[in-house]
Amino acid sequence: MPDSAPDYGALAARVRELAREFGFQRCGITGVELGEDEAYLREWLAQGLYGSMDWMARHGDLRARPDELHPGTVRVISVGLDYGRDSDEAWATLDDSERAYVARYALGRDYHKLMRQRLQRLADRIAEVVGPFGHRVFVDSAPVLERALARNAGLGWIGKHTCLIDKDGGSFFFLGEIYVDLPLPVDVPASAHCGTCRRCIDVCPTQAIVAPYRLDARRCIAYLTIEHEGAIPEDLRAPIGNRIFGCDDCQLICPWNKFAQRTDEPDFRVRNDLDKATLVDLFAWSEEEFLQRTEGSAIRRSGHERWLRNIAVALGNARSTPDVIGALRARRESASPMVREHIEWALRRHGADDAA
């Protein structure tokens, strides 16, 4: 580093300018103290609300201790990148049982690589000012308590649905961090503005928000359709409706999202017409076609088998039509045992579980 100590106040201001130049709509700086959040996380883990996501339990304490995850860290630069879309369009898809609903964040390119590249460029520009410095970039790539850090950095508050909310921009934005060893001045944490509202709790199809600020991942549609590897519990299949990858209901209903920014980030534009695709069409994708169409997409995370499982459930919840029943029957014999079990369930829902 240069011989003379940097003007950290000026550097912090420059970091925010650079963040916006690189396309981030939000940027804040916070310290590494997360004691209350660590206690809350421990309690949540102790209750087993993380389902089969064992990696959350393995690295529980490390999430709340940035200076242990990356030694030397004294500050965290937190950024937000908008991906919001028209909520009316989303509700229209959810209301049409023959169409497939994909969480808005997954309609375009996977955001991880895009954000990581931009954050690394931001770190490189900081180094041009202060010289080499200790840092590490994160975008869902390690145990990071990103929402708590973003709240402390002033980007927004954690809502009752556990998502981060910005009063000027809603909750449809991605988070990323740079852990740094620079003693930058910190921002004022965001204050909460949920008040008595509980729309997110009431709208959840599977009642996964078991109390304000407490999510039971085992009931969450995002967990069930993306993270969960086995059969979906039968009592949760009907409430899933036509949601085949993730769920946005708790965000769509949030009054603060009427302020959500609409992004025209080319990488987040819809691929494969997923905002209007039918369940029958998507159910016909072979594994080769699935891999080809989901290249560079977050959807590939689920894998083809879970993709078929999820669509089978959605087809079971769809309006009974010859196309729906025909699609289920066409897949029945070639499906894996796990997928076939969901197909049989769907056919029973339509009163079409005979062998004909």
From TrEMBL:
Binds 2 [4Fe-4S] clusters per monomer. It comes from Lysobacter soli. This is Epoxyqueuosine reductase. The keyword Metal-binding applies. Pfam families: Fer4_16 (PF13484), QueG_DUF1730 (PF08331). Residues 182-214 form the 4Fe-4S ferredoxin-type domain. Its cofactor is [4Fe-4S] cluster; cob(II)alamin. PANTHER family: EPOXYQUEUOSINE REDUCTASE. It comes from the Bacteria. Cob(II)alamin binds at R63, D140, L164, L175, C247, D248.
